[in-house]
Amino acid sequence: MRDAKSILYERLSVAFSEVSLGADPVLRPSAHADFQVNGALALAKSLGRNPRELAESIVAGCDLTDVCEAVEVSGPGFINLRLSESFLVSQALQMASDSGLGVGGGQEGSRGRVVVDYSAPNVAKEMHVGHLRSSVIGDALCRLLEREGYDVIRENHVGDWGTPFGMLIEHLVDVADGGAVEELTVSDLDAFYREARTCFDSDEEFAERSRRRVVKLQSGDRETLDLWRLLVAESMRHFEEVYSRLGVLLTPEDVVGESYYNSMLDSLVEDLDDLGMLVEDDGAKCVFPPGFTNRDGEPLPLIIQKSDGGYGYAATDLAAIRDRVDDKGAKRIVYVVGAPQAQHFAMCFAVARAAGWLPDDVEAVHVEFGNVLGSDRKMFKTRSGETVKLIDLLDEAVERAVSAISERGDSVSSGIESVARMLGIGAVKYADLSTERTRDYMFDWERMLAFEGNTGPYLQYAHARIRSIFRKGGVEGADVTIVPVIRDERERALLVALVGFGAAVSEAVATYSPSKLCAYLFDLATTFTSFYEGCPVLNAPDAESRGSRMLYCEMTARVLADGLGLLGIEAPEQM
RNA sequence: GCCCCAGUAGCUCAGUGGAUAGAGCACCGGCCUCCGGAGCCGGGAGCGCAGGUUCGAGUCCUGCCUGGGGCGCCA
Fold first, then answer.
1. N or C: which end of chain A has fewer CB within 10 A?
2. Separation of CA A444 and C1' B50 in angstroms?
3. pLDDT above 70 (res A185)
4. A510-541 in b/e burial notation, b at 16+ Cβ within 10 A?
5. Would A204 be classed as within a structural domain?
6. From the C1' of B13, which residue's alpha carbon is nearest?
7. Measured between alpha carbons, how far is A162 from A318 in angstroms, rounded to an integer?
8. Nearest nucleotide, C1' to the C-alpha of A281?
9. Nucleotide showing the shortest C1' distance to residue A455 CA
10. Last residue of a domain, one of A83, A118, A136
11. What stretches of A382-437 show up as alpha helix (H) in DSSP?
């Protein structure tokens, strides 16, 4: 389905091009109309013409009568557009009769293959709050991209390889007597990791054994690999539990850990060498991509192979690019990784481009995000200063949601546990998704669980309330074959908001910004509330109006549930 | 020292070079005997500082201030 904005943009672009080839109409949402067109002002300036006159002539040469009921030149040369009722109604009918609410358009997967790299926890460590944003944002982006018609491949680049495993395995050998190894749980592993670290830092003999163990691991020693697999398997169970609790789509099939690329690294170095890009510096094999300097203004290396022969994460990331382009057929690679990694990815992309591994028609994007902060504006920690475990955070979210529901005295027929889970988890995810992702955001239980303001619970409640109208009216849903009517400005405002859903989704995808979809949903919910305040639905003055308003309610509920769904948040029918 | 990101109302946040900078919370004042108070309507209060580009700057450029991050063998 073509949304209003894209239809208008296309028509206006033609009209503007007739005046000056390729001129941008600068179509924008407006407080003065449904849309405003600002392009005439800049164009008039560059052509040395009067902006109002130019705007008038563009309006005269552009037929929008099937879409707009009013096209007016205003102020110094703005063009204000008001959508026609017949257009709004036809858009609404198309949406209502489409199970996908008119979002997307193309065939499933028709817009190309996209690899999305997100979450990326580490083996032998519990997932913590630091993994929250990548998991939640990455998952929302996957859902959004899929809906827009992309063929999405999720990849979980877990840290399952490298030097830490030497000390972990060696410590395992030290403490394991018989069956104790099989009893190992992840919770133990977190403490286990710290113990291993301590031994490594304080015991030179242990450290040496660890280093030898790394070599054994990399050379494929059977006993070592068995111990390694034990650590990996236990960690995977833990990741599964967290993803399930969090409602993240990642599965074990999506795991492509660092170890996967191990066998590709020797040839990667050879290829870089053959290309003449490799420079040995202090015993390390490096590439110096142009434009990057260190603190002394000297060229900054991307270290491919360390002086001890081991590989760093740059090698793995480069191998991953080759794998994703050559073997997975990606036309776009999206990395949902924190902002501090910006320089690392910029360097990796630069090297991959220079090596010809990342062709010009393949896009690589670092979707960066800021930190989660506590109320003290410092990194979010527990009261005692410890890293917050993700599983504990999610448990607390659900507990707090139970209290919130109980305090409100809501009767929940489907079970408070189920609703509390949707509310609590939804609140955490929505709080994360609704702020502009490059900024740090403050983690605040009270605010995210509030039923007022731009929160998950607010939108879930809005949805549940609308559903309750139908229950009360004794009907399953609205009759989607009914032709809606507009008799009130509030009905019109709601309709305008509803038909903007597709554009909101497109915008969120184009900028990798779930927060834009959040803003849209919040606006829709508040617009609905104004409508609902002034326009009785079940008590509408006549059958035609009642049916029409039921349709508005139905569509609003569907858009809210669908929009939340695209963010990875569930919307209960009752709460 | 160099580079990157951020600085918007008392607080938390929106804001694709366009008209009078918007929400929510908190505060103040009205309204609703009605579909679950997500109430509804209205009010006060703000772009870190200084220049510049532009018909027009929160948005672009330069400098400065504040905070966070990065800057060779952890990943």
1. N
2. 36
3. no
4. eebbbbbbbbbbbebbebbeebbeebebeebe
5. yes
6. A435
7. 16
8. B72
9. B24
10. A83
11. 390-408, 416-434
Residue A25 CA and nucleotide B52 C1' are separated, in Å, by: 28
**Averaged pLDDT score across all residues of chain A:** 92
> Which domain does A11 fall in, by range?
4-83
Distance, in Å, from the CA atom of A477 to the CA atom of A496, rounded to the nearest integer, reads 21
Q: CA–CA separation, A495 vs A490, rounded Å? A: 9
Instruction: Please state the domain count of chain A.
Output: 2
A135 in a structural domain: no
- Grade residue A415 by pLDDT with cuts at 50, 70 and 90: confident
Q: How far is the CA of A79 from the C1' of B67 (A)?
A: 42
Residue that is last in its domain, among A48, A83, A118 = A83
Asked which of A153-162, A188-197, A454-463 is least confident by mean pLDDT, the reply is A188-197
Q: Which long-range contacts (CB under 8 A, 24 or more apart) does A410-414 make?
A: A410/A575, A412/A574, A412/A575, A413/A574, A414/A572, A414/A573, A414/A574
Q: Is A252 inside any structural domain?
A: no
DSSP letter string, A225-263: HHHHHHHHHHHHHHHHHHHHHHT----GGGB--GGGGGG
Q: Which nucleotide is nearest to A575 (CA to C1')?
A: B36
Residue–nucleotide distance: A46 CA to B56 C1' (Å) = 14
**Does the structure show a pLDDT above 60 at A70?**
yes
Mean per-residue pLDDT, A362-383: 91
Nearest residue for B7, CA–C1'? A439
Measure the CA–CA gap between A414 and A419, rounded to whole angstroms.
8
Task: Tell me the average pLDDT across A86-105.
Answer: 91
- The CATH number of the domain holding residue A44 is 3.30.1360.70
**Positions of strand B less than 7 angstroms from a protein CB:** 1-2, 4-7, 12-19, 22-26, 34-36, 38-41, 54-56, 67-75
- A559, pLDDT greater than 90: yes
Whole-number Å distance between alpha carbons of A155 and A319: 14
Q: What is the pLDDT of residue A320?
A: 97
The ipTM estimated for the assembled molecules is: 0.95
